[in-house]
Structure formats: C-alpha cells, structure tokens
Specification:
single chain, 222 residues, Receptor-associated Protein, 2 domains, 8 helices, flat
C-alpha cells in the first residue's frame, strides 16, 4: 500500500477516502466516526455500565479507521489487481492489432465495466480536455491505492515518452500480476482449513460442555 507520511493528517485522511473509493469529505467521515462511537457508548451504558461503555467506545474510536478505511482500501487493492489482469490482456491484444495506446484503452474499456475500467475512462476524458497521457496517468495514480497498477501506469507513461516497446513491458506486468493473484488465491485456500477448524471448535465446544454438564444440572435440579 502506498505511504502517506509526507501529507498532513487532513490530507492523509482525504487521500485514504479516495483510495477506499468513499464519496465522503474528511469532515463527514470524522462525524460518522464520532456518531458511531457515541451510539456504541449509549448502548454500552444501557446494557452494561458507564465504565465499560466508555472503555468500549474509546477502543472502537481507536480501531475505527482500521475496521473501515484500511479494510476497504485493502479490499479495493485486491479487486483492482484482479481486474487489472483481464484489462491488461484485452489492452495487449488491442495493441498487437496496431492500435494506439488511447485507442487500445478505449477498446479495453468497452469490454469492461469494472472500477479499473472507469478509472481509465477518466484518463481518456482528461486527454480530451487537453491533458497529455502522462499527466492523465499521474492523476489516475492519485486515485489508485495499488502499487501493481502504479507500475503499469508508469510503464505506459515511460514507454510512450521513451519509445520503448509497450507491449513487452505490459506483458511483463501481466506475468507479475498473474503470479501475484495466483499466490493470493493459494494463500486464501490454505487458510480455509484453519477458519473451518476455529468455527468447528466454537460450535462443538458448547455442545460438549452441555453433554458433560447436563447430568450434573439434572441432578442439581432434581
């Protein structure tokens, strides 16, 4: 994930909202965060006590950004990387037929309606408004949290200005994405038995305890 250390707190939050694709201002996001904590606080007061309600609200306030922003950014990165694989395949095919990069992007967009395709559509719109391709791609980088797609955009920008083979460069990026997506899916599959085991333990343990303790409970009631 891209680093945001050079930005102020306000600008960091603004940039993270863009990365998460949330159509909110930083002020609105902070307001929702405070309201969520207050709702949790009042629920805690009603159900438990003032002390535990305060502790729960403070913890929730601290981890809120991780539960919402960081989760959405990470989820979007994974989605964009998966979308990039198909988009690149179509883009490379279009380039191999002799299309210009703008025409190839337009053809790839016509075959896709994903988040990534919409971002490239914005690139073409900015070019029509007078921006150069490198400028439009740089603006797109500011809206995308994925470093893999960053590298793709840099490849397109550099090869268009230096005259290097764009197809060869994109094929390298495609191979990297294919390996990365494969390893991520493999890792997710490997985690399934662990998750199933945890769920099984949580479901089975209460039943086992009930079977063990039921004779004692019956004797006590009798």
């Amino acid at each position: 994930m891209k680093t945001l250390f050079v930005l102020s707190k306000y600008e960091q939050l603004k940039q993270k909202l863009i990365y998460a694709n949330l159509k909110q201002t930083p002020e609105h996001y902070v307001l929702m965060k405070i309201l969520s904590c207050l709702l949790l606080f009042w629920a805690g007061v009603l159900l438990f006590s003032l002390f535990w309600a305060l502790i729960a609200a403070l913890i929730f306030y601290i981890i809120y950004d991780y539960l919402v922003l960081e989760y959405l950014i990470k989820k979007r990165i994974n989605q964009l990387d998966e979308q990039a694989q198909y988009f690149l395949e179509v883009l490379i095919l279009a380039l191999e037929t002799g299309s210009s990069i703008e025409k190839a992007i337009s053809l790839a967009i016509s075959e896709d309606d994903s988040d990534l395709a919409q971002q490239f559509e914005q690139v073409l719109l900015e070019i029509k408004l007078g921006h150069s391709l490198p400028e439009a791609l740089t603006n797109m980088q500011k809206r995308i949290p994925s470093e893999s797609i960053d590298n793709i955009l840099l490849s397109i920008s550099d090869t268009s200005s230096l005259g290097v083979s764009l197809i060869a460069s994109l094929q390298e990026q495609l191979s990297f994405l294919q390996r990365k997506n494969f390893l991520q899916k493999k890792e997710a599959i490997n985690k399934i038995p662990v998750k199933v085991s945890i769920v099984s333990v949580l479901l089975i343990l209460p039943i086992i305890f009930l079977l063990i303790l039921s004779p004692l409970i019956l004797n006590f009631l009798g």
